[in-house]
């Protein structure tokens, strides 16, 4: 039974470990054609959710499907869903080629494809070496090769940049964007907003097993827009006009203003309507990392006190 559209759908998913609630009625949809970031602090439920989607863990209630099917119903799963969950899952006594070849044979994938993905992820030089001697970064690349093996429509990557050097991080970022551009579904978990800001088109933020926010990255940036920097030779007149419109306008040196409480298009419209020239109009956003930390602060497993910098 094949997966057709690759959409990942999670509906009212609940899961507990003893008295600890891992997932609390979690619901979301991941669509093809974009990189969807799955963000949350350590312990928020990201890995648990992915394991349930892949049939590696069982939920107490709720539904987790890919393309309208449970993963367990797919006969050759590597051809439908590629996943990187645990870089240490390969047998340490096997070579990288042997590990991938075994996976390929069990899913009806030819030997030639094994060589292709080995080249693609940059481990051709160590393909015949035992996995036990690999660094974490090389294990990550091997795990990504396994995910690519069946050329699937859907991908789940759990913290894929772990252990990668800067070149490797750039490579996996470009790979995920390329897969999404081909119309595939890409769900990637991380606890770092800074990384997702460079990678994701859409973001799901969870904490303590609940969905805190779902948004496009562009909309998230707009939501946390802090103020607008304006430069005008008639800055004082413009400040008076904006104040009457309910905005807060602070005069700065160099015929400039810092404006809050009103967005850039409205500032431009008011200025044009009163024939006030504007030479610069720049929205300035608060740090997405700061916004993310604020949203998830109550969900973090451990909170350190603020540093006392003197």
Could you give the order of strands across the largest sheet? Answer: 5-6-7-3-8-9
- Please work out how many helical segments DSSP would assign: 10
Proportion of β residues?
25-35%
Number of domains: 2
Which CATH class of the largest domain?
Answer: Alpha Beta
Percentage of residues assigned to helices? 25-40%
Assembly status: single chain
Sequence of secondary-structure elements: EEEHEEHHHEHEHEEHEHEEHEH
In CATH terms, what is the architecture of the largest domain?
3-Layer(aba) Sandwich
Q: Can you tell me the CATH superfamily of the largest domain?
A: P-loop containing nucleotide triphosphate hydrolases
Rg measurement, Å: 24 Å
Family: Belongs to the ABC transporter superfamily.
Keywords: ATP-binding, Nucleotide-binding, Transport
Organism: Amycolatopsis alba DSM 44262
Domain ABC transporter: 8-233
Question: Which short descriptors sum up this protein?
Answer:
310 residues; alpha/beta; Rossmann fold; Alpha-Beta Plaits; 2 domains; 6-stranded mixed sheet; 4-stranded antiparallel sheet; 10 helices; disordered C terminus; AAA+_ATPase; Export ABC transporter ATP-binding protein
Describe the structure.
- This protein is of the alpha/beta class and 310 residues long.
- It folds into two domains: 8-221, P-loop containing nucleotide triphosphate hydrolases (Rossmann fold, 3-Layer(aba) Sandwich); 225-285, Alpha-Beta Plaits, CATH 3.30.70.
- The chain contains ten helices and 13 strands.
- The protein has helices at 46-53, 96-106, 111-121, 136-148, 166-181, 193-199, 217-223, 235-244, 264-273, 288-296; strands at residues 8-17, 20-30, 34-39, 61-66, 81-84, 154-158, 185-190, 202-207, 210-216, 225-231, 248-252, 256-260, 280-285.
- The strands form three sheets. It has a six-stranded mixed beta sheet with strand order 5-6-7-3-8-9, with helices on both faces. The chain has a four-stranded antiparallel beta sheet with strand order 11-12-10-13.
- Residues 302-310 have low confidence and may be disordered.
- This is Export ABC transporter ATP-binding protein.
- Pfam families: ABC_tran.
- Keywords: ATP-binding, Nucleotide-binding, Transport.
- It comes from Amycolatopsis alba DSM 44262.
């Amino acid at each position: 039974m094949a997966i057709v559209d690759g959409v990942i759908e999670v509906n009212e998913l609940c899961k507990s470990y003893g008295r600890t609630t891992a997932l609390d009625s979690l619901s979301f949809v991941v669509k093809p054609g974009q990189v969807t970031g799955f963000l949350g602090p350590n312990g928020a439920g990201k890995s648990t959710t992915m394991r349930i989607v892949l049939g590696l863990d069982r939920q107490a209630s709720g539904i987790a499907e890919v393309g309208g099917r449970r993963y367990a119903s797919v006969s050759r799963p590597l051809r439908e869903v590629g996943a990187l969950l645990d870089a240490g899952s390969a047998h340490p006594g096997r070579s990288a080629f042997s590990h991938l070849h075994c996976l390929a044979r069990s899913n009806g994938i030819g030997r030639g494809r094994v060589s292709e993905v080995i080249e693609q992820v940059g481990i051709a030089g160590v393909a015949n070496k035992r996995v036990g001697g690999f660094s974490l970064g090389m294990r990550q690349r091997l795990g990504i090769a396994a995910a690519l093996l069946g050329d699937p429509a859907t991908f789940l990557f759990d913290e894929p940049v772990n252990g990668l050097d800067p070149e490797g991080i750039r490579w996996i970022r470009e790979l995920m964007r390329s897969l999404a551009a081909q119309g595939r579904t890409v769900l990637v978990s991380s606890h770092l907003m800074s990384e997702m800001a460079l990678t994701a088109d859409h973001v799901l933020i969870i904490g303590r097993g609940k969905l805190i926010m779902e948004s496009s990255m562009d909309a998230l940036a707009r939501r946390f827009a802090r103020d607008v920097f304006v430069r005008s030779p008639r800055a004082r007149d413009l400040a008076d006009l904006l104040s009457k419109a309910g905005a807060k306008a602070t005069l700065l040196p160099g015929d400039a203003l810092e404006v809050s409480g009103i967005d850039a298009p409205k500032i431009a419209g008011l200025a044009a309507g009163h024939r006030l020239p504007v030479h610069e109009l720049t929205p300035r956003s608060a740090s997405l990392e700061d916004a993310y930390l604020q949203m998830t602060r109550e969900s973090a497993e451990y909170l350190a006190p603020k540093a006392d910098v003197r």
